[in-house]
């Protein structure tokens, strides 16, 4: 297993004193009320092991949140709380994949997917999404299905491209899953970080999919508190139970005071969501406009807090890895090469930047990107 590209680029940012637009954490946006709830729970509540599947109040809050926002009919018994979404993904993969199975990944993809599939004894089968539109194409996925295929890992909204897949594309995934009797591990952690007037549709809401989707969620993404590492899975009782049994041998449980605070946020914090989305949209526009004014070709972002820059179209004739190293070492800005998100058919002319930053961080990052462009002019 390689060192994560996020760890690698963040370490280089620290070493060189660079603006870190590589690792995906915001430097604004968390509501003070949820911090107070966590502090109060730490002082006044239990600090011992909570139930492995999560505090009852948080599991109920997750189910009710999805009922209000996505019309999903869930109960607390269908929720398992995990130590972040990455652990939820790991538990879901270990619960689903047996030695010899194949798992379809749509690349570029979050870099934990393939290593975890291999740890479970499975084989990743990559299907490349094509820039600049990154559309899900049925014939390409169908060609990757074999008698050994057990699951699809589907990420929507999509990291690293910022794509929000439409209903036709969701139906393609659903149709293939039902046709070939596949489980879909649906990584939906960015479900509330949707820009503009766009609308997110959960895959489990499509007909016939509730019983075969393991939905992954993240409080860190909803409340801009990535360091809390509070995530969850939502699935049918049978699937949820198997994932919970895998989870018990990974982290077993998650800090109880943080669970209490997240339950409070999910129950009382609906009014926080629209201002959060608007703030991220403004940040995206600020970074996009600054980069385009400096001669960069920026692909449209519809969700997440990431955008991609096309180096070839920007007149920079080097690989994404070469650009990323020069940018952090010589120009003072850390970005992520998109080739780190795929093992085959990698997009070696694109880099990813995090726009979930304060104005001054964005401006410093854009200035450094313009300096990086001069290196290759």
TrEMBL record:
Its cofactor is pyridoxal 5'-phosphate. This is Aminotransferase. The keyword Transferase applies. Residues 19-367 form the Aminotransferase class I/classII large domain. Keywords: Aminotransferase, Pyridoxal phosphate, Transferase. Signal peptide: none annotated. The keyword Transcription does not apply. GO terms for molecular function: transaminase activity. InterPro entries: Aminotransferase_I/II_large, Kynurenine-oxoglutarate_AT, PyrdxlP-dep_Trfase, PyrdxlP-dep_Trfase_major, PyrdxlP-dep_Trfase_small. It comes from the Bacteria. CDD domains: AAT_like. NCBIfam families: PRK08912.1. PANTHER family: FI04487P. Pfam families: Aminotran_1_2 (PF00155). SUPFAM superfamilies: PLP-dependent transferases.
